[in-house]
Write a structure and sequence with these properties.
The protein has helices spanning about 35-55, 60-70, 80-90, 105-110, 135-140, 150-165, 170-185, 200, 205-210, 225, 245-255, 260-265, 290; strands spanning about 95, 115-120, 185-190, 190-195, 215-220, 240-245, 280-285. The chain is α/β, with parallel strands linked by helices and about 300 residues long. The chain has one domain: Phenylalanine Hydroxylase. Strand 1, helix 4 and strand 2 form a beta-alpha-beta unit. The chain binds 7,8-dihydrobiopterin (HBI) and fe (iii) ion.
């Protein structure tokens, strides 16, 4: 039953986030923020900058979603209108949240085909640095993919898988799957490798690095392996995992016996994020020159 918010039972660890007084148990904002002209201009600047680098590097499903949802019509999109258009395509909606929300609430929204998106935008003086996902990362980065029916189903399944992971105390493992697919995933297309991960597509430099640089490994996605792989959250990735199709990703996840996997999965991660291991189907073995030079430092 996904209509009610789950109460996470005793023994399940959830980060004690401080809930602002104006939001309820669902962590939804009562209304979308009214952005100032300067804030709308930040969206336009970021949008134009991404469109310089994404053609030929972003997945065709992402480019199609951008266009169908008309995210470049100018300014921060209106969530009501966006939800209506997205709803007609895949049944998803977009709802504003004030900040990072607790894991079990995040999963609950996804399981109900609601994408929680930041109700704020970064400042014009910090275009490249955000501490928490803002409306540009969430809407520009994530929402176009939700216009793809198979991907939309995958995200819902991820939400459903979340509670199971929490009950088994394996949220870190499932978080790695989210990281290497939803945030930093690559896909094989007829014309070459393209990016579909929101973390890649909403930033200025990673699209080029992820798709074209010699430095990172590019390895075919294996769910079992990825869930044992560590990840860094504040630098370019040493390894990207590549899917064959969204259909393969969906079935890889939905047809999996997570109960069984969690029983055999050790807590914590087995593989470093730069490791290449025996079972890997390697498309490109990275030089790791970026990592060896010390990364972002
Ligand atoms: N909250 N607003 C927001 N956005 C997220 O992406 C998010 C979150 N809370 C938890 C969370 N992600 C993680 O549980 C997953 O990425 C695994
Ligand atoms: Fe994200």
């Amino acid at each position: 039953d996904y209509t009610r918010l789950p109460e996470m039972g005793a023994g399940v660890f959830t980060a004690p986030l401080q809930r602002p007084a104006h939001v309820g148990e669902d962590w939804l904002e009562p209304a979308q923020r009214r952005y100032s002209p300067a804030e709308h201009a930040v969206w336009d600047t970021l949008y134009a900058r991404q469109l310089e680098v994404l053609p030929g590097r972003a997945a065709s499903a992402f480019m199609a979603g951008l266009e169908r949802l008309d995210l470049g019509r100018g300014g921060v999109p209106d969530f009501a209108r966006l939800s209506e258009e997205l709803g007609a395509l895949t049944g998803w909606s977009v709802a504003p949240v004030p900040m990072l929300i607790p894991d079990h609430v995040f999963f609950w929204h996804l399981a109900n085909r609601r994408f929680p998106a930041g109700n704020f935008i970064r400042g014009a003086d910090s275009l490249d640095y955000i501490q928490e996902p803002d409306v540009f990362h969430d809407v520009f980065g994530h929402v176009p993919m939700l216009a793809d029916p198979t991907y939309a189903d995958y995200m819902q399944e991820y939400g459903r898988a979340g509670w199971k992971a929490m009950r088994h105390n394996r949220l870190k493992s499932l978080g790695a799957l989210y990281w290497y697919t939803v945030e930093f995933g690559l896909i094989q297309e007829a014309d070459g490798i393209r990016a579909y991960g929101a973390g890649i597509l909403s930033g200025p430099t990673e699209a080029v690095f992820a798709v074209e640089a010699q430095s990172p490994n590019r390895i075919m996605l294996n769910v079992d392996r990825v869930m044992r792989t560590d990840y860094v959250i504040d630098d370019l990735q040493p390894t990207y995992f590549v899917i064959e199709s969204f259909d393969a990703l969906y079935h890889d996840t939905v047809d999996r016996d997570f109960d069984r996997l969690y029983r055999s999965l050790p807590p914590g991660f087995t593989y470093a994020n730069s490791a290449v291991i025996d079972v890997d189907d390697v498309l490109h073995r990275g030089t790791q020159e970026y990592l060896l030079r010390g990364g972002r430092g």
